[in-house]
Queue: 3 jobs
Job 1
Amino acid sequence: MFVDIHSHIDSEEFNSDRDSIVKKCNIIIVDAGINYENDLKVLEIAGRYTNVIPAVGLHPENINYDNPRKEIDSVISLIEKAEIISEIGLDYYWIKDEEKRKIQKKVLEELLSIAEKENKPAVIHVRGGLRDFLEIIESFKVRFDVHAYEGSVKNAMKIIELGGYLSFPPIIVRDKQRQIIALNVPKERILTETDSPFLGSTRDRNEPCNVKTTLETLSTLWKIDIKDIEEIIFQNFRRFLKKTFQ
Ligand SMILES: [Zn+2]
């Protein structure tokens, strides 16, 4: 079975054909929420499908920076309804303001402490704030996946040492840096994702079944049959979801 650990299948780009997209291939889809309102939508849509797992989160770009407290509490109230906390993290690429970055860090720490307490894994968005993220994650015993990781091999290995996973979107097919990382990190710490409808390998709308492109690329890189890689990724996902930290 394919695994898409990070998608936004709830987004309006899928309104016209979501049913057929969700059922098109044999796949588990994790649908990530980006703020309270969207988390509610994710929970509603995931409830319609047996192969869609809801994730509740507060994306760093979607924090209400004028009054973050109320929204954080609302998001936290939904976490018990989700198996995964996502998407959360740091975005210093779009958010340059130091005060806002401080708020991002606080929100991340608070949601990671809930992940630790509730023993739920977290899928992380980190763009430009990797050094701060590594410093923060070190203090939490949480299973985590850095989605669409785009840093160095050295930092990828740091994530692995801290117990983390890395997920690769289909764009890996033409991204040399991600291919080098896939060759250097342990296979048991790799997951597949799409970030649908974003991050496709072409300009078209990306969709969950396109994780096949990631699997094909890993198959070429690792010289392992695609069926075996599908099984490796599936087992990695089961370990990621598991209720005890290791
Ligand atoms: Zn995303």
Job 2
Amino acid sequence: MTDLVTCVIDGQSVAVPVGTTILEAARQLGRDIPTLCHHEALTASGQCRICSVEVEGARTLLPACAAEVRTGMVIHTRSERVDRSRKVILEMLASAADVSEAPDILAYAEEYGADFSRFADGERLTYPILDDNPFYIRDYNKCILCGRCVQACGSDMQFAFALTIAGRGFHSHIATFFEKPLPETSCVFCGNCVGVCPTNALQPKLSWLLAQGTDWNEVREQTKKSHPAKNMRKRR
Ligand code: SF4
Ligand code: FES
């Protein structure tokens, strides 16, 4: 028989199996908690903290996607403190990154009243768009460092380990080893990283080219030019 733990979420009591996260328990009750770095297919990393909730008696807010329910917990998924924390996280993300193509962030900003101009004097990401393969482009100006792509590329999905987080502080960024172009790494172009990216920092090359008005002939030329197999043939 499965061992159960009981807690109270927003005034409602719920019993869940040991090991259930606060996020899973809340969803069982139909409570909506925002998430960004969390993805059903990936290990919870607790990276972005947008899901943080208030637990009575706890010193800090707890990330609902990573913290497990304990017996007797009294949890508030919305409170003044929770809402303020989510609002500031959104404002800080938008101060550095281009979140204009991140639908979840835009929806949460609306819900929590985030003011994207609040930290307008903050430093912004200024990376060149990386277009080094025929399948997808990388625009790290849109990256919020949620880490999903690294997890999907690594031990959560593909085991290719082509991506990692490099640098420190504001200069932390997603990179390949030695910043090599993707065709020169262990990338197998599975597309899992593109599929889990919440901000469109990773985009299929085809849609990216078309969005810029590139016509089909040119799309075909560009794709041919940068195809890794062709480059490999050239090098021989
Ligand atoms: S590229 Fe996308 S998935 Fe990867 S860390 Fe940045 S926002 Fe997350
Ligand atoms: S969604 Fe929970 S920490 Fe990011």
Job 3
Amino acid sequence: MVLDPAQEGVKRPRMAGPVADVYDCVVVGSGPGGGTTAALVAQQGGKTLLIDRDPMPRFHVGESLMPETYWTFERLGVLEDFRRIAFTRKYGVQFVSGDGKESRAFVFAEHESRASAMTWHVERAELDCLLFDTAAKHGADCRDMTRVLDFRLKEPGEEYHEVTLQLHDGQRRTVRTKVLVDASGQQAMIANRLGLKHVDPRLKKAAIWGYFADAERQPPEEPEVTCILHTEDKQAWFWYIPLSDGRVSVGAVGDNEYLLKGGMTPEDKFQWLREHCPGIQRRLRNATLTTNLRVAKEFSYTTSQRAGDGWVLVGDAYGFIDPVYSSGVYLALKSGEWAADAIVDGLRAGDVSAERLGRWTAEFDQGVHWIRKLVHAFYCNEFSFGAFMKQHPQYGQNLTDLLVGKVFEGDPGRIFQDLDPWIEKSKALGRDCSMADHGAMAMSESAPDAFLC
Ligand SMILES: Cc1cc2nc3c(=O)[nH]c(=O)nc-3n(C[C@H](O)[C@H](O)[C@H](O)COP(=O)(O)OP(=O)(O)OC[C@H]3O[C@@H](n4cnc5c(N)ncnc54)[C@H](O)[C@@H]3O)c2cc1C
């Protein structure tokens, strides 16, 4: 049964009906990771339960997508829905320096000929709800307003895990499942229980963000892009993501200590940063904040084990790097897709061992490793895309591949053979490029590429 909570006027589940006692696969969390896993396991014949504690659609941060998301959306069959929903099209990325210098946008299509060269800025409530509905369409039993209260992982020799749920009407039910997928996002249900979560000491960041009406948009003839704008003191950066409902998602990211400690409220700190970021000041000149500001911190971590006997992690429950290159949703989709194939293979073979369910994780980790290295470079004051690329223009395509998310094919780590020593040399020379210089260098007329130099 499909209900429309908006029409009902009260919080009602989007999907309801009796819960079965036994499943092949229970997926906890219906973000991009969980929605994808459930859809693909169900599509391939697995009896699947997808649950989320929130009513769908539900709010979530993370609106800017990476181009390589295209292929999972194509496999899920939702590209046609994207056209109907008319999400804002994202054609590239633009960097703006701390003194307000605007780089020419890096337009993906100038470097990437595949259909994925164009991507989207999405309202996450709509995207995640679309994936929830898609999982239902493919045959998964989908429940929102249904929370995992507890779970017991199976002992050796047992066939099923037990998952205790609180249903939308408050009733408790325990279901049994051969495979348990943790797609609970930053709740990281299994990793927290088993002590597998490790915060990245180099990325102790926080974010303060909100949604603005009447903020500046690109003129119609200009391609819409995600902007990364640095503050004057080079200690923080803003994201600027124009959405299809006319609003713009604007968030500040900086070290936890810098952003949230020091005596200012998040509201005052956001305002202060806004006043000290010329690029944002201009864009928000006539804008009105339409929501409360929200805060997130300590969101960057990794996990030391990604699969066990009959369980597997996907999306943020597996790990999260940083918002700067918009890789979160992409990695949630990709891990969801690969986990689903491993689950189906394991169920068919009657072998849902850690080895079988986690067979994809080494390759996944290798790709994530290259994105993480580029994130570390971004936050390194001795690094400048521009200065590096001027000396090493041969890496133009390689850098493009990293920025669009093409990290699971070819040789995406090649660039680091020269980039790592370049950063070390810069440190030894005491060169302070600072993150603000990524944009400033993009202004250089002698540069072989507008963004890259
Ligand atoms: C500040 C910030 C900015 C970001 N910006 C971007 C961006 O621009 N682009 C991008 O690609 N990514 C961005 N991200 C990352 C992105 O939001 C995540 O990577 C992505 O949402 C992960 O998807 P997921 O499916 O793993 O988890 P989620 O989308 O978090 O979904 C997890 C779901 O699990 C449910 N859940 C949790 N516990 C339970 C329980 N006990 N029972 C039932 N359900 C439960 C939750 O309700 C939730 O719906 C950003 C992240 C942060 C912190």
